[in-house]
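Recall the central idea of this unit: under ordinary conditions, the amino acid sequence of a chain determines the structure it adopts. In this exercise we apply that idea directly, starting from the sequence alone.
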Amino acid sequence: MDYKIIKKISIYFSIFLIVSCSNEYKKEEVKKESNKIAFIEFPSVIRKGEIVKGKLKYNLNLDSIKRENIKERFIFLYITKDANVSNIEELKKHKHQVFVEGNKKGVIGFKIKFEKSGKGILNCFLVDKIYIKKEKDKIDIKTKEINITKDVFVEDIDSDGQEGRG
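Accordingly, the structure predicted from this sequence is:
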């Protein structure tokens, strides 16, 4: 009887240890921009040529706009891995991807692949376009832009799973 309990405990402990030691998707708290970005899930170390999934959670709460005054709202996530840029117009000049928040919960999933090994950067701009109802069929458009950067290290792994040289 005691052997079965010890065996179950060791199995649960092993599972816990494997899950907690995994390098998969850490939530990173982002403190800048009035806490509009709740977290970004993307590993710090990835493999060269591997498609990696990430997730960004955006705080949808608005300080000065009432929800009933919003006619429409679109949230876009622009991502480049090729350049460290300081504004959205500069980012658009480089190769980039665009992802759209479609679930109205502020969560944007994305997939990206790094082709160069070594130190890399995930450079993102979140664009929140809010269309606000005004009197007599007029609409005011407010746009918020938030820059998010994350350093990543890209491992050079050969097809046989061994670290490459150079």
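Residues 2-21 form the longest helix (20 residues).
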